[in-house]
Design goal:
mainly alpha
Length: 136
């Protein structure tokens, strides 16, 4: 009796396993025959095609832009350097002019002092002579 109780589940299990093996085998055979990549039912890949000439043109534009910007920067720096040099030359010229004016002022002051001394000594000499005249 126990054999009959165990034999029914074993028979059912064998039948279910056979059905499963047949179904899996059928699907495997069907997949081998219909390996067709890119068919409508397959997964699509989102891709963008890039034109190399467009990329080259864009790269050249970027290089030209960068180069023109560097050239503008160099030109601006050169202008600033020229302005600084011109300002320095003006300052040096102004300092030299001030030195010349100071020397001229000192020279005039010395001439004025010398002239006053001559005037004083000239007037003093005439006083002595007039004083001598009066004493005589």
């Amino acid at each position: 009796m126990q054999n009959s109780k165990l034999s029914i589940p074993i028979v059912i299990s064998i039948i279910l396993h056979l059905i499963l093996i047949v179904v899996l085998g059928y699907q495997a055979i069907q997949n081998i025959d219909s390996v067709n990549y890119g068919r409508e039912t397959g997964n699509s890949i989102d891709a963008i095609m890039i034109d190399p000439s467009v990329m080259t043109d864009q790269y050249q534009r970027q290089l030209k832009t960068k180069e023109s910007q560097q050239q503008a920067d160099r030109k601006r720096e050169q202008q600033l350097a020229d302005q600084a040099k011109e300002l320095q030359e003006r300052q040096l010229a102004e300092q030299q002019h001030l030195k010349d004016l100071t020397k001229e002022r000192i020279k005039l002051a010395e001439q004025l002092k010398q002239q006053e001394e001559e005037d004083c000594s000239g007037k003093g000499g005439s006083r002595e002579s007039s004083g001598r005249k009066s004493s005589r």
